[in-house]
Amino acid sequence: MKTQEQKIKSFAKLLEQARIEELHKDNVACEDNILNAKVTTKQGKKYIKVDVGHSGAYMVEISTERIFGIKAYGVIHRGHCYGTLDEINQWYWGGYTARKRAKQIEPTDKEEYRLVLTVRQVVNGEQNLVCYDGLCGIYDTLKEAVEAAKCLKRQLA
Predict the structure, then answer these.
(1) What are phi and psi of 74, to 5 degrees?
(2) Cα pseudo-dihedral 110, 116, 119, 120, rounded to 10
(3) Strand partners of residue 51
(4) pLDDT tens, position by position, 101-120
(5) Residue 81 bridge partners (DSSP)
(6) Gap between the Cα atoms of 100 and 92, Å rounded
(7) Distance between CA atoms of 87 and 10, rounded to whole angstroms?
(8) Cβ–Cβ contacts within 10 Å for residue 99, how many?
(9) How far is CA 81 from the centre of its chain?
(10) Rounded Cα gap, residues 8 and 12, in angstroms
């Protein structure tokens, strides 16, 4: 089992790698930008400050290991919670703020596979638009799921 210090180091390393990866993806990975993506941590009484470059980015509550965004340096934003140190791999840390990664869905047939692939591409920003067929597939799948939920609700009532 990892100690809190090891978890913080893992989080800082993941955050820094994701930021540098994003710089390369945006084709702005000059030396200054890479140096400004350096992640440092500062221990406090209640929180650990996680800074990217010279700016504050996140704060980790020591007692619960929850990760928060900040309102101002040293001030957490309780409305922006990004899980815990045990859940860091469920988030993408490369953007200005963290984004929840899409759940991995295993399709059962070729049509579902195409639909899941299309949705993943849109969620991950690899594709800006879903083709009409993809939208129809998403709509049909959601419609079937709603009908199944209604049917189950009637059976349980």
Answers:
(1) 85, 5
(2) -120
(3) 40, 56
(4) 876 656 566 666 666 666 66
(5) 68
(6) 6
(7) 11
(8) 15
(9) 11
(10) 6
Looking at residue 124, its amino acid is N
The structure tokens listed for 82 are 């990004």
Residue spans per domain, the chain: 4-100, 110-156
Neighbours of 27 (CB within 10 A): 7
pLDDT digits (tens, 9 = 90+) for 116-135: 666 666 666 665 555 555 56
- Phi then psi for residue 124, to 5 deg, are -80, 0
pTM above 0.85, yes or no: no
What are the tokens at 122? 């849109």
Tell me the angle at which helices 110-123 and 132-156 cross, rounded to the nearest 10 degrees. Answer: 110
- The DSSP call for residue 104 is P
